[in-house]
Amino acid sequence: VGTSSGIWMSRAVTVLGYALAYITVAPAVLAGRRALQRAFVTERRAVTSVARLMEAAFIGGAVLVVSIAVLGAEFPIRGALTAVVPMPLVLLATVRFGLAGAAWTLLVVIATSLYGGATSGGAAIAEPASGPLALQTWLFFVGTTLMLLGASIDERLQAYGRVVVSAERYALAAQAGRVFVVSYGPVRGVV
Predict the structure, then answer these.
(1) pLDDT per residue as tens digits for the range 104-151
(2) Helices (H), the chain
(3) DSSP β-bridge partners for residue 190
(4) pTM here?
(5) Distance CA 132, CA 137 (A)
């Protein structure tokens, strides 16, 4: 039978494990579904270039390789802070691909740390008493922040797309109506 601190530690690890599942697995599945739906259902032609697909594959592969090297095997530096090593690549994926990039690369990091913890003890789980709790807490807060950043990037890109469409409609209406349109920019003072 365990001590009261051991029971509370296992409860905290369980609660944070469920929270990590909700903030990583669900957004990754939904973002992947949205990307596939946009690519094959709503768009008539392929809108994703080969270069962008190659960039996504390269960043995803780099996150996987770094995560396996650091979190999935014996690493010279042990402890929960080894989860920091793949985060610059996760941030790059977030900035380049928005919510989908953040969700999928975080899912890779978490799956690799789980695999490392289950098979070889993993570098991130050095101390069985506090290692999983520290890793889960850190990934929870970093994951939430990166998901919010990715969502705001996606929202900004959608707003920019709406502005471009609106400007194109305005130009088409002005040309079709054969009217003279004057626009004044108060910041630059240009007519």
Answers:
(1) 888 888 888 777 776 766 555 555 555 677 777 777 888 888 888 988
(2) 4-37, 50-71, 87-119, 131-176
(3) 185
(4) 0.71
(5) 8
